[in-house]
Amino acid sequence: MKFYDRENEQEELLRIRQLAYTDMSRMTLVIGRRRIGKTMLIKHTLASYDDMLYLFIARKSESELVSTLIDNLHEQTDMYIPDGLTSFAGLMRHLLEQGKHQHFTLVLDEFQEFMNINPSVFSDLQNLWDSYREQTHINLVISGSAYRMMQKIFMDKDEPLFNRADHIIRLRPFRTEVIKQILSEYNPSYSNDDLLSLYTITGGVPKYMAWLLDNGCVTKDEMYNYFFSENSHFLEEGRTLLVSEFGKNYGTYFSILQELASGYNTQGLIEQRLGGISVGGHLKALDETYQVIKKERPIMAKPESKTVQYSLNDNFLRFWFRYVEKNRSMIEIQNFEGLTRLALNDYETYSGKVLERYFRQQMAETSQYREISAWWRSKAIEYKGQTIDAEVDIVALPVEGKKAVVAEVKRHKEEYRHELFMLKVDYLKQTDLRHYQVETRLLTLDEM
Fold first, then answer.
1. What is 366-447's CATH number?
2. Percentage of the residues of the chain whose pLDDT score is greater than 90
3. 353, 315 in Cβ contact below 8 A?
4. DSSP alpha helix (H) spans, 274-314
5. CATH of 7-170, one of 1.10.510.10, 3.40.50.720, 3.40.50.300, 3.30.300.30
6. Are the C-beta atoms of residues 78 and 100 closer than 8 Å to each other?
7. Distance between CA atoms of residues 408 and 76, nearest Å
């Protein structure tokens, strides 16, 4: 798949490069989940300049790594590199010395691997950077795929490199309009179910989209068949993605995420499903440390409200835990056809909830709203002589004015029950939205 989007990030990388060359050295972090396209962004933006030096930090002994990095430098530049260097600190000192009289971009990819190679590199780099930064003209770009470790290295106040990054570029999945653009180039006659399937499986993560589209999977059925095929990259991707983040004690985290993916979205329900074990600490870590889940309250709820639900942030992980991890026994006996059929049979139900996420993201991308969420209560409500389920798919508050958009999301218009929806809207107008001018919307596949 060719390079798409990222215009803002490219402009920022080039702006920082110019600052480093004309003022003083700059350190930039490019962070984001695995497969999000960090390395591709850096190379696409900066590799066309002949002053970029790219170094990949592979997990090996420090002396062996430094020997490899020196070989890489010899392939990319005629810069003098002295013999006998065996430490990364020694190599960095030499490069910083070179930065006193020439400017260049230095990319350190998979930087978090120094945590396994030699953690003292972080203190060494801090001392060297503090000593050389104002005397040199190096555009230092650092990226890494272990999101939690990169956060810890550069944003934990107890770590030596805390506050040393001048700029942070956070790379996120593609916007909905970009996903539509890419799919239309591969399949000009795509249906909205094809689009929803691509969003459901990949969430707009570039590498996942490439795995599907570059393999000719441009319709819903083709995507599902490939995802659950024997040689699919997707089947082990969830485990690869998270075990490196969670470490050896990933079992409880996996169990929690599987329950969330299955629709059990409160602490009480999860603890009940897991036999009564306490998961409060795990939920807090998944939310605040790993940023894999998020805590949600109904729109208009007070911050201290105990009406809390949890959800998986990542579309791919929700899909993977719901169908792959939950049905690993089917994979072990190589029943890929049965697993595909199981997921396709569940498509109408599962994709309905994903459609809500799609429209929330689409609305957020317009920059017209200050808050977008769902509204719910833990119990059904008696209102005007009727019992109604106290749940509204989307309530969005525009940036300006006392206005609110209240939306019902259905896959098809035929599923919409106007009287029931308007009864909920009327209840909201009498309670949480009593001071707001309310606009109602029905959002279906047709509005994607």
1. 3.40.1350
2. 89
3. no
4. 280-284
5. 3.40.50.300
6. no
7. 56
Asked if the model's pLDDT at residue 247 lies above 90, the reply is: no
Q: For residues 7 and 167, is the Cβ–Cβ distance under 8 A?
A: no
DSSP string, 168-236: EEE--PPPHHHHHHHHHHH-TT--HHHHHHHHHHHTT-HHHHHHHHTTT--SHHHHHHHHTSTT-THHH
Give the number of other CB atoms < 10 A from CB of residue 270. 23
3-state DSSP assignment of residue 300: coil
Residue 204 makes CB contacts below 8 A (sequence gap 6+) with 173, 174, 175, 176, 178, 179, 315
Asked if residue 302 has pLDDT above 90, the reply is no
pLDDT at position 106 is 98
Sorted by where each begins, the domain ranges of the chain are 7-170, 180-356, 366-447
pLDDT score at 286: 92
Which helix (H) or strand (E) segment is 350 a member of? helix 347-364
What is the reported pLDDT for 243?
Answer: 86
For range 184-209, the mean pLDDT: 98
- pTM reported for the whole predicted model: 0.93
CA 49 to CA 431: how far, in whole Å? 60
The whole-angstrom separation of Cα 326 and Cα 343 is 12
Confidence category of residue 379, pLDDT binned at 50, 70, 90: confident
pLDDT band at residue 249 using 50, 70 and 90 as cut-offs: confident
Please calculate the CA angle 334-337-340 and round it to the nearest 5 degrees: 110
Chain centroid, CA 58 distance in Å: 23
Mean confidence (pLDDT) of the chain? 95
Instruction: State the DSSP H helix or E strand holding residue 290, giving kind and residue range, or none if neither.
Output: none
Structure tokens belonging to residue 400:
């300006």
Q: Distance (Å, rounded) from C-alpha 219 to C-alpha 94? A: 53
Is residue 349 packed enough to be buried (19+ CB in 10 Å), middle (13-18) or exposed (0-12)? exposed
Look at residue 304 in the predicted model and tell me its pLDDT: 80
d(CA 377, CA 390): 5
Asked if the model's pLDDT at residue 8 lies above 90, the reply is yes
Given a contact cutoff of 8 angstroms between Cβ atoms, the answer to whether 336 and 228 are in contact is yes
pLDDT of the residue at 111: 97
Q: What angle do CA 407, 410, 416 make, to 5 degrees?
A: 85
